[in-house]
Design goal:
By secondary structure, this protein is α+β, with helices and mostly antiparallel strands. The protein has two domains: 40 residues; 184 residues, no CATH class. 25% of the residues lie in helices and 23% in strands. The chain has six helices and seven strands. Strands 1-2-3-4-5-6-7 form a seven-stranded mixed β-sheet, sandwiched between helices. It is globular. 28% of the residues are buried.
């Protein structure tokens, strides 16, 4: 019979056993937590830092119409457009060759300053028009309080080339681009925000600079960030004349 005196002393055995249990205890606890199949623990997700675009707020009223001219000259403005307005567009620019980027298109449609307005200490609406062609108008809308800044660019584009743009019979297309996919369905969680619809309705109801006539918008298109277009009806936008089909 082997005795402790011939192999290892009782004290050394106790120390060795205690050390062994101390070493394997975390493994045993981990195995109990994970269960028999050893399901791995979920990796911790790093929190996305919310980007601040609150610097835009300084260009809102006062004065009454805001300070869009200064906004257009802010060195942060064009990089902001390039970051958030990335969808492809096919309505503006040369018919042959490469079209202008959406960010450059937005800047073109805001080149002649209009107004900067604020609502509910949260939403900014910036309007303008194309240089030397104010029948083509632009609107930039920003939700400064969204989890991630929500930006929309809308353009009213003249489509009737055989009639002058100031002719009441001329037709226009309303293009709406957003940096996040939005749904025209009111019941969807990602539906078009009511504040954006309100801004679009008020903007479209006003005649362009130098005209007495409200523009005849016959087509409206919502474009996803990946370029997928969705034609909208007048009951979705609340803008008269957005249907392409005449009602009986």
């Amino acid at each position: 019979m082997t005795t402790f005196s011939n192999s290892i002393s009782p004290r050394r055995f106790i120390v060795f056993t205690a050390g062994l249990l101390f070493a394997i205890a975390p493994c045993l606890a981990s195995a109990q937590l994970l269960g028999p199949e050893g399901i791995p623990a979920k990796e911790k997700k790093s929190k996305q830092r919310r980007e601040s675009v609150e610097w835009l707020w300084q260009y809102s009223p006062p004065p009454a119409d805001g300070r869009e001219n200064e906004l257009l000259q802010d060195p942060r403005f064009q990089p902001l457009l390039k970051k958030y307005l990335t969808a492809p567009q096919a309505f503006w620019g040369p018919q042959a060759g490469v079209r202008r980027s959406l960010a450059d298109t937005a800047f073109d449609f805001l080149a002649v300053p209009g107004t900067v307005s604020a609502e509910n200490d949260r939403y900014l609406t910036i309007t303008g028009c194309v240089f030397h062609f104010c029948s083509n108008r632009g609107l930039l809308w920003v939700d400064l309080n969204a989890p991630q800044p929500l930006m929309a660019f809308a353009a009213i584009d003249w489509t009737t080339e055989n009639q002058p743009p100031d002719d009441p019979a001329s037709t226009y297309t309303l293009w709406i681009f957003t940096d996040q996919a939005l749904s025209p369905q009111r019941e969807d969680s990602n539906r078009i925000p009511s504040a954006l619809l309100k801004s679009l309705q008020q903007w479209a109801a006003k005649p362009p600079a130098g005209s007495k006539h409200r523009q005849n918008i016959t087509t409206a298109v919502l474009v996803d960030p990946d370029g997928t277009p969705h034609e909208l009806s007048s009951d979705v936008l609340g803008i008269n004349g957005t249907d392409t089909k005449k009602k009986d």
